[in-house]
Write a structure and sequence with these properties.
3 helices
């Protein structure tokens, strides 16, 4: 239950995590780092946030992100 907010006052409404990283940034980190745990460690954020970002991009942006 990690909130992902889209507020036009911040980064033009890009989906942001509580850590203020964009969901796309963390999704890309999961791919580059080789998984959720590794991306979480690389960015210093909880795995729950990384998982939420990954699922958000896959479920809501789908092929647009690929």
């Amino acid at each position: 239950n990690v909130p992902i907010i889209m507020d036009p006052r911040f980064r033009f409404g890009e989906p942001l995590l509580p850590s203020k990283y964009s969901a796309m940034t963390i999704w890309e980190a999961v791919l580059v780092e080789g998984g959720i745990e590794a991306a979480s460690k690389a960015y210093g954020i909880p795995e729950e946030e990384t998982d939420a970002a990954y699922k958000f991009v896959v479920n809501h942006l789908g092929k647009l992100a690929a």
